[in-house]
Structures are given as C-alpha cells and as structure tokens.
Amino acid sequence: MEIISAEMIYTALAVIFLLLLVFLAGRHCVLRYDTTIDKFIEFNNNIMVITNDEEIIKVNGAGLNFFGYSTLEAFKKDHKYIHKLFEEVALSDKDRFAIEPKWVTKIDSHREIKVKMNYQLNTNSRIEQYFYLRVSEIKSHKYLLTFSNITSLEKEKNDIQEEAEHDPLTRIYNRLKFNKIFNEMYYRADTFGEGFSVILMDIDHFKQINDNEGHTIGDRVLSELATLVRLELRKNDVFARWGGEEFIILTRFLSAKEVHQFSERLRKVVEQYRFSFVNRQVTCSFGITQFRKGDTQSDIFKRADDALYRAKDQGRNQVVLK
Q: Which homologous superfamily is 44-155 in?
C-alpha cells in the first residue's frame, strides 16, 4: 500500500490553492469586465442593449428613457425579446429582412446596418423611427447592440428624394420619375409579357387660359386638374406631369376596351368639373396606346403621341386609341 507523504499532501494543496486563485482571478476579471460594460453603456447617450440570441438582458438609461420606462424590470415585462421592438432590418437599400427571433445572429459582427421602428406616442399615434445599429459579440451568444437615432437624417433624405421625383406645382410624379418606372414596366412586359397601357392627356386650349387669365390662374388649373385626376386612379396607376399642360398615365392589366372606357370616364370627369379659378369649361384630349410585343420604347410613345394629335385634330375633348 502506497503511503501518502506530507510532501505530496502539501503539493496537492498547493495545486488546489493555485487553481482556486486562478478561478477567483478569472471570476474577478469577468465581473470587472461586466462592470466596465455596464458603466460604458450607462454613460452612453445612444440606446444600448445587451441581449443573447433573442432575449433582452440589459438596457441602458438612454434606452429606458426613450421607450418610457423607469426600470429594466418594467421594460422587460413588456419587451422580453429584442425582435419585438423593430419592424425591419436593412443591410442596404435592396437587402432587407423582417425582424424575427434570433435575427441578431444573422448580422455580421461589427456591421453597421439600419433598422426601422414604429414608436408608439400614445394609443392613437405612432411615428416611424430609424436607427443605425452596430452589433458586437461581447461573449459567446451575447451581443451589445448600439442604436444611433437617424430619424431626422432619414426624413431629410426622403424629403430630398420627394422633391427630386415630384413636380413642384402639381405634386405628382415628374417626367424623370415616370421614365424610371416606365423602364421597369417595359422590361417586365418585354420579358414576361405583362401588358400595360400609356395614356397621354393634354388640356385643350390651355394657351388661351394663360393668355386671358394669366399664368398664375393657369398654374392653379394645372394643380386642380392633377388633384381631380389622381382621385380617379387606381392604387397602382402611375400619374405624372409630362410637360407643360400635358400629363401621362401608366396603367396595367386593362384590355383595349377597358383602357378606352377608363380614359373616357376621365374625360367626362374633367368636362363636368367646374374649376375654381376660371369662368370657362376646361376639357382634355386623350391619346392611348398599349404595349405590343416587339415594341421599342420609342414606338410606344410615338403611338400615344400620334393618338393624342388625332384627338386634337378631330375636334378635341375626345379619346383616341391607336
């Protein structure tokens, strides 16, 4: 039987003591690390959240204030999961995915992305909020999320885009935006056979309105006409100011007969409407064409323009399909 010497006992005790010291030092470092993280997020003005794959662990003061809570316990009672707070994640303008459980794991560490949230002001009012989000994995399956509010920048960008795409007088699409949509629709028609129609409409004798009533009144007629027509369009119809007193409509899924009836209805609506600023009847002429297999874009616009010219030549205030 092997006798355990005092030296062996001392050695074993020394090893155990050393392991205990290593464990306590490691635990101290972990606690110190966690404390440092806690202090860091508390003194940060951005919203910061610590979460595992899906469940919220901690929210800093800025986050609690933003969401309207005084304590983390109250916050977690209503919002246990981080994915419940946001509607959409955008890695780029084209690369988006809906928020869902474990969505944090889909994002590369240290990658800055954009998220959208509908912020509840009260029971009847919500406003869209946008944030840049930075995700850092601070431990295995534990993440630090930093949200920087960019709502004002997003609004400014949207306002600039709105101005770039809309006619300043009538507030409908301008020619540049129409051409962009038309190019996409033309591609789908040419590639997949999805038909569409183009309707050109022009105010009859508009020069007389400008000459007799003045350009200010002419502008008001243009604006009022745009509002009138827009109310008659379907949700997916595209309506734009083509230039001067000429407007254009892009509509899908209508037969030749249906698009003619639709244009005729618009013609009658304009004819029967009494404009606020002129003591005369205002009418429009309409030229229509439909996409045909093998058409170039120029072919389509030329046919629509020829149809409009024929409507004018035949006495105005009428619809011609070519």
A: PAS domain (3.30.450.20)
